[in-house]
Amino acid sequence: MPIRVPDQLPATDILRSESIFVMSETRASTQMIRPLRVLILNLMPKKIETETQFLRLLSNSPLQVDIELLRIDNRPSKNTPIEHLDNFYRQFEAVKERNFDGLIITGAPLGLVQFEDVIYWDHLKSIMSWAKEHVTSTLYVCWAAQAALKLLYDLPKKTRKEKLSGVYNHEIHNAYHPLLRGFDDNFLAPHSRYADFSAQYLSESTDLDILATSPEAGVYLASTPDKRNVFVTGHPEYESHTLHKEFIRDRGEGLQPTIPLNYYPEDNPDLEPSASWRSHGHLLFSNWLNYCVYQQTPYDLEQFSEENFTTNE
Over the chain, what HEC string results? Predict the structure, then answer.
C-alpha cells in the first residue's frame, strides 16, 4: 500500500526515485476503493490443491479480493469431484463479457507435449487474446508462461533434456521495480518444469523486463514494461511437500527422476523437506496485486481501456 504524505514534502522525490509508492494528500482524498476482481484459470489436474495454494498467496494483502475460478473446458476430471467443479468453477462463456482486474493462469503438466497437441490450445489462445481487452494484469505461471511467450511473442517451445526440479537461488535485477519491492538481493524459489527460459534468449527476442534469474534455472520473473503481463517460471505457490509428491509420483511411474536439487536435507528423500521460499512467494503476490493490479486498474471496470495504462512505475 502507498505511503500518504503531505503535498510537496521534500522526501517525496527521493522516495519516488526509489520506486516507493508515495501518495499525496490531494490524491488520497479523492481515491475511490473497491474489491479487486481476480480470475484464476486453473489448468492443474488436482484443482482443489492448486486453488488452495494460490488463494493462500492472494490472501496475504490488505486489499479485498473477490476470486472467481475458471476451468478450461467441460471435460470430466479424474482428480477433482464433479460436484466441486459444478459448484465453484465457471466456463469461459460465462465471464467473457466482463472485465477483471487480474487474471492468473496456472501451470499444467504438459511440459513434454507440443502446443499444437494440447487439446485445449485454441481455447487457451482465445482466453489470452480476450485478456488483452478485459484484464488489467495477467500472471502466467510455469507452463502458462511458456504458452504466453508463444502466443504473445511467437517464441517456439524450448524444452530441456532433463526436468528442472528443486529449489534454486535467484538474483534480482532492477531492485526498484515494483514487483521486486522488499525482495532480498538473492532469494530461493522452487521449479518443476521441462521448459527452458534462457535470459539471453528472452532479452534478445522480447521487450520483457528481466527481473530475476538463476544460473541453473534461467529467468524466474519477467514483466512487460506496462506490467500488464507478468511471467513466473517457477512455483512460488508450492507447499513444502509438493516437490516431494511429484518426485514420488514420477518414481512410481518408472520415470527415474533425479532428486530435487537443494530440497531434501542431505539430499535424502526419507528426510522431511521444508519450505524456504514461502516469504518471497507471499511478497511477490502482494506486489503483483498492489502495483500491477490495484494501482493500474480503473475504478469503474466498465470503463476498461488500454489508454488507462502506462509504463511509468
Answer: CCEEECCCCCHHHHHHHCCCCEEEHHHHHHCCCCCEEEEEECCCCCHHHHHHHHHHHHCCCCCCEEEEEECCCCCCCCCCCHHHHHHHEECHHHCCCCCEEEEEECCCCCCCCCHHHCCCHHHHHHHHHHHHHHEEEEEEECHHHHHHHHHHHCCCCCEEEEEEEEEEEEEECCCCCHHHCCCCCEEEEEEEEEECCCHHHHHHHCCCEEEEEECCCEEEEEECCCCCEEEECCCCCCCCCHHHHHHHHHHHCCCCCCCCECCCHHHCCCCCCCCCCHHHHHHHHHHHHHHHHHCCCCCCHHHCCHHHCCCCC
* CB 175 within 8 Å of CB 187: no
Q: Which residues of the chain are under the pLDDT cut of 50?
A: 310-313
With cell 512460488, the residue in question is: 236
What are the grid coordinates assigned to 188, written together?
A: 530461493
Q: Which domains does the chain have, with CATH numbers?
A: 35-239+276-300 (3.40.50.880)
pLDDT in tens, 28-43: 666 667 889 999 999 9
Q: Partners of 141 in the beta sheet? A: 232
CB-based contacts of 143, cutoff 8 Å, min separation 6: 43, 107, 108, 109, 110, 111, 193, 195
Cβ atoms of 304 and 80 closer than 8 Å? no
Q: Which residues are catalytic?
A: 142, 235, 237
Return the C-alpha cell found at 307. 489508454
pTM (predicted TM-score): 0.89
pLDDT for residue 9: 64
